Amino acid sequence: MTTVARAWKISLVSSRPSSQLHLPAEQGTPGHDANGRALPPAIDRFYESYVSWREASAQVWRAYERWVGCPSSERRLAHAAYAASLDREEIAACLHALCSDRLFAGAR
Q1: Is the pLDDT score of 4 beyond 80?
Q2: Which region holds residue 23: left if phi is over 0, alpha if psi is between -120 and 50, else beta?
Q3: What is this structure's pTM?
């Protein structure tokens, strides 16, 4: 798990009631709670999907900036790249929503 994913994992898990999720140890092993128990794979998938979605969102902004700042001779290609990045971001958002629905279905 990347450092960014771990940081988001800690901040998001910390915002949930402890009855729903186990808090990870401050200096513990990634994927484990404060008592050393392994977290369910669904939690890891949830955080990884969130990070993937945020990275895809950042790519959309970069592609947009390239599109609006490129010479007119390159606009069609730049727009195609922007549209493709929007598609990838939508897929990442849908996957994250699916992971979220599966993880928190029992908490409702």
Answers
A1: no
A2: beta
A3: 0.62
